[in-house]
Specification:
Helices cover 46% and strands 18% of the residues. By secondary structure, it is α/β, with parallel strands linked by helices. The chain has 24 helices and 20 strands. The protein is elongated. The protein starts with a strand and ends with a helix. The longest helix is centred in the middle third of the chain and has 29 residues, at 292-320. The strands form 5 sheets. Strands 6-5-4-11-10-9-8-7 form an 8-stranded parallel β-sheet. A 5-stranded mixed β-sheet has the order 17-16-15-19-20, with helices on both faces. It binds zinc ion.
Amino acid sequence: MSFEIKEKDLLGRIGKLKTKSGAVETPLLYPVINPSIQLVTPRRLKETFGFEAIITNAYILKKRFGDKVVDEGLHKFLDFDGAIMTDSGAYQILVYGGVEVSQKEIVAYQEGIGSDVATMLDIPTGWKITTEQAEVTVAETLRRAKAFFKTKTRDDILWVGPVQGGRHLDLVASSAVEMGKLPFQIHALGSPTEVMESYRYDVLAEMILTAKKGLPIERPLHLFGAGHPAMFSLAVALGCDLFDSAAYVLYARENRYMTENGTFRLNELDYFPCDCPRCVAETPRGLEIKPKKEQEVFLAEHNLYVCQAEIRRIKQAIRDGRLWEHTEMRVHGHPALLSALKKMRNHADFLENYSPTVKSSGFFYFDSVGLVRPEITHYRKRLSERYDPPTSAKILFLVPQTRNKPFHKAPEFKKIRQLFRSLGELSEKIHICVYAAPFGVVPLELDEVYPLSQHELALPLDLETVDYVANQTAEYIKRSSYTGVVLLDDPKLWKDTIKKACRSACKTKGLDFDSVDADVAGSKEILARLANIFREQLGE
Ligand SMILES: [Zn+2]
């Protein structure tokens, strides 16, 4: 196996990819090297910035330098002793409509120059084309992929099998399944550049998740052309392991300064919001009066530092089980990124299947965007599939969440325990559950199970979260076999949502239903009313 997964969170993972020039750690960013113009040399990328791998274009190398690269070897030619990936010219097909090379030639060339990771010559789908045209690109890429395995001769190279289909998700799905059957070591999502340029990150997220579902999950996935640090976290959370960036140079040429939250133009900045070695020694005004070439190198190097730092933060977030929090923070840098994270809601089960759901630290719940978190899906499934209330339970007593956790240790429960003592043996027929965001019903005896006590909430809750808890509560009532439900309502936090949901569920099942507002009267009166309700419902 060329890829070994060490740590996981969401669909992101820290892994070790073994190439013939040494192992590299993922998530990994390959800076794109233009062999003709190098603002930052490959040697400097490794020695100063710590990049273990770079990517360059085999088609351009072949056209401009031909056999010179075969004779010298790619590593000597670029003066880089780390892992080198080569792309095949598919991007040129997308931009120029074709390339003057056959797949057989470009595969042989990549073998000849000694690429560590190399790409077959796929046909990119692109963005503005019909379904019929998209079908052709998928079919032709698959045909070429099958032919490729008959012509390649080197097994020490990791070969990349791109998935095509563009925004046509059914095509992406079938492309992923078929390409995944072939023995590629790495897969890639073909040419998403135009999707990103038009800020359709929501479409991109669907494309990535659709591809992930069809591909063998243990193989790494490369996202071509994803070069902005603001989106790395989202792409990693969706399951991308490898990226390449030409953006650090392209942005530098246009005086654009990357940050992990977005982009500035040099003339907009009065201060550099960065601690990289270049930024601490310069000011925006000072840089503006330097020669153009020096400005470009400065910006390219700053951009690289920012990208590298963001990759390190993402790795640490994966280790800490906090990739969701990190991604939520980043996607708030642009509405299009947040829209993409919201799209994960359609894939909650897939996410939960592959993500760790028990962690060493608690989580932060900000708003309903977080409802897709695997910990929440996991709890929902466990409760509905594996939980049965105590057999003695006749009445479901629903109590609002408390600020203190675990709930049963909160001061509010002192009075409830007092009430239960006064009820004597009857209390065994009453099952206490808490209704709590962002989970729904939490049986009190489970409230110390992860993550029911290990999370922090932002209050007041948003409407979608309130609705989710109300729906989950109604579902719980509908599938259980209590004879009645008593709700201690907390309208300050929940308005009338929980009451309505409970009443309707009880009506459907023909159960007794009573509710008491927790805050309308003094506590003594509430306790007396509750005691009466319990006795009445139990027929005592
Ligand atoms: Zn900087």
